[in-house]
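User: Continuing from earlier, I have the next pair ready.

Assistant: Great, send them over.

User: Here they are, in order.

Assistant: Folding the first of the pair now:
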Amino acid sequence: MSDQPVEQEEQEQEAAAPEQEVDVVALIAERDEYLDHLRRVTADFDNYRKRAARDQQSLATRAAERLVGALLPVLDDLERALEAAEEHEEAKLEEGVRLVHRELAQALRNEGLEEVPTDGTFDPHVHEALMARPDEEREPGAILDVFQKGYRLGDRVLRPARVVVAE
């Protein structure tokens, strides 16, 4: 009687073997499908990354072209001012330099550059105090003098205004 349960178990294993074989084939097919999908997603991501890099480079190039295009008239005016300087025509030289300054300032304003205001009290976010000087007429923290103008582009301070502050 002890042989009968062993035989029955072997028969059950033989019957289950084809089922297990079918499952392996199905699993291999499913694995191949997932690998193919993974390769496609990887290729799509690579293409996206390359396209984003190209778009970013193109945007930077267009921004530089726009700024350089706005500065070309300033360059022309500066050349005219230098020609006037060669001829020693001081009035024309001064007028040329003023024209260059005006056009350069306008081109930079068009790009969003703003001067940091210096008529008021000291603000450490936009001002840099180079020195403090006693002044009885002004309250402490008032800006007395400006050594160098400060500028901001949008919300970012490009260069703080360098000032003298009342003690």
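And the other member of the pair:
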Amino acid sequence: MWMAKFKLKDQKDIYSPLCVKYKVEFFAYPLTSFKKNKKINLIVAGIISGDENSKKKFITDLKKDKRVKKIERSKDFVLVHAVHPLTRETITEITTFYNPQYIPIKPVHVSSDGWEYWQVACLDRNELNKLIKAAEKHYNGKLFSIKEEKLSSISTLSIFPSLTDKQKRALELAFKKGYYEYPKKITLLDLAKLSKCSYSTFQEHLKKAEKKVIESFLKLV
């Protein structure tokens, strides 16, 4: 199996400008594309990561985009139905990026830095090269690596553990503030103060979140 890691930047993308504007991360999984009413329809599932106020603003602006026809949201999980004019350029782009020969190894990480980070696998290197060339030609794409190796795992949105809002906020805060770095950049006590709750309460939320994440990971190995 051939695997490629690369990034691209699409200024006209629905999600990237909003991720930059509100400093949120969007982990997107393209589900399908189809033609209807003389337009290209795209359905994408995704997980939003960021502070609650920023996520709400992200969704609000997303709904204002005329290309977005419907959004379904359940906490941080969203399902987006978008439509695009049926032009030759659009058809070419969709055919390339929604090629069923490609296997998304991980959800596309639409980052707050404006870049989309892709990891894709394919049996045919020539087909994978077409994707890389399209990204480089039209979206300032930059290739990190392309190599042949055995595929050991695939990450999808369904493996994300079901965390409560408080557990998720505790885990995100700990990660962003460097609690999991070595040496630690912050203590549990300081994290609790930042979250404006007691030490024992914050520790409970964080430990329960860690347990769910570890259990979810171990199911895959």
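Worth noting for the second one:
The chain has two domains: 2-148, 161-218. The longest strand covers residues 25-36.
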